[in-house]
Write a structure and sequence with these properties.
The chain has helices spanning 6-10, 31-39, 53-56, 59-65, 92-105, and strands at residues 45-48, 69-71, 84-87. It is of the alpha+beta class.
């Protein structure tokens, strides 16, 4: 996505709904794309701090078939958790250990 310009703030540019730079939200791509990258081997880890079951229901079998894993940040294999992590499988335990260490730190 592009950044807003002065003409956007005046209501004449492509980003007419954006009044100021403060109002601008830069959203690259939807959550599912990160999981697609993991499942296809183009990324090794996808962290999602907030998940909904309707968004991630297809992910466990897809990632499992691709050799990866999908769990909550605490390692529970469920779509009903508050968060989600997908990995290529080989890194999963290491990623969970890092997430647990960060939880203990805060």
């Amino acid at each position: 996505m592009r950044r807003p310009t002065d003409s956007d703030a005046r209501g004449t540019g492509a980003g007419r709904g954006c009044r100021t730079f403060r109002d601008w939200k830069n959203r690259g791509w939807g959550d599912c794309y990160g999981y697609v990258l993991v499942a296809t081997g183009r990324a090794e880890i996808m962290l999602d701090p907030v998940i909904n079951p309707w968004d991630c229901a297809p992910l466990p079998p897809i990632l499992r078939e691709a050799g990866g894993r999908f769990t909550t940040w605490r390692g529970e294999e469920t779509i009903w958790g508050p968060d989600g992590v997908a990995t290529n499988g080989a890194l999963h335990e290491q990623v969970l250990a890092m997430l647990a260490a960060e939880r203990r730190r805060t």
